[in-house]
Amino acid sequence: MGKLVLILVVCFGLAVGVDASTVIALPLNSPVFVSLTTDPVVTVGSRTIDFTANLNSNQQFYNFLFVNTDVSNLYGVQTYRETIAIGARDGLALLGGAFPASPDPNFANTIPAFTAGTTDLILFDFVIGGQGTAFSLTLTDINGVTRIAGLSTPTPEPGTILLSGAAFLLFYALHRKRVSLWGPV
């Protein structure tokens, strides 16, 4: 009986440890602030990141695209909703950026308001049209250290381009030899 209780306690402890992340639903309708010192494991949509190693290193800033969501069906052209995460280990003092206007008249691409000196991870969304559309954010911490984060919307991966090119070359070579994959020419 004692062994069974011990096994149940260990299993419960493991289950609690797995579910101990901060979970954030998408899309973000306003900025979300996450205290990494309270919980360094953050789940946004289907992506989970453990920031423990970043907190224990000398990494000054956290800035990256957390999630790309293709929302082209809403706008009729290639468009992405970009969930961005930024933060400064010593505290964020200033935040600026150069990014295109949102194609959605009801959703403005704006820098979120925050309390200067915050060490929270700040998550917010941009809506950006086009493939490979570049944009940047400029972060400055309370010590005056600045970082420019260059980001962009997704582009077709090289593997897809190479595969398409290889298929084209195969069909071209077969055409030149007058060979058909579907029977005699």
Overall mean pLDDT stands at 83
How many extended strands? 10
Helix/strand order: HEEEEHEHEEEEEH
CA-to-CA gap between the ends? 79 Å
User: What proportion of the residues is helical, as a percent range?
Assistant: 10-25%
List low-pLDDT spans. 2-18
Return the structural class: alpha+beta
Overall structural domain count? 1
Tell me the major beta sheet.
4 strands, antiparallel
- Beta-strand content estimate: 35-45%
3D shape: globular
- Rounded to an integer, what's the Rg over CA atoms? 23 Å
Tally of contiguous helical segments: 4
How would you briefly describe this protein structure?
By secondary structure, the protein is of the alpha+beta class. It has helices at 2-18, 52-55, 72-75, 158-176; strands spanning 22-24, 32-34, 41-44, 47-50, 61-70, 79-88, 92-98, 121-129, 134-141, 146-152. The protein has one domain (23-176).
Describe the structure.
The structure is a single chain. With 185 residues, the chain is of the alpha+beta class. It has one domain (23-176). It contains four helices and ten strands; from the N terminus they run αββββαβαβββββα.
Key phrases:
185 residues; alpha+beta; four-stranded antiparallel sheet; 10 strands; 35% strand; globular
Q: What is the topology?
A:
Elements lengths: L1 H17 L3 E3 L7 E3 L6 E4 L2 E4 L1 H4 L5 E10 L1 H4 L3 E10 L3 E7 L22 E9 L4 E8 L4 E7 L5 H19 L9
Parallel strand pairs: 1-3
Antiparallel strand pairs: 2-8, 3-4, 5-6, 6-8, 7-9, 9-10
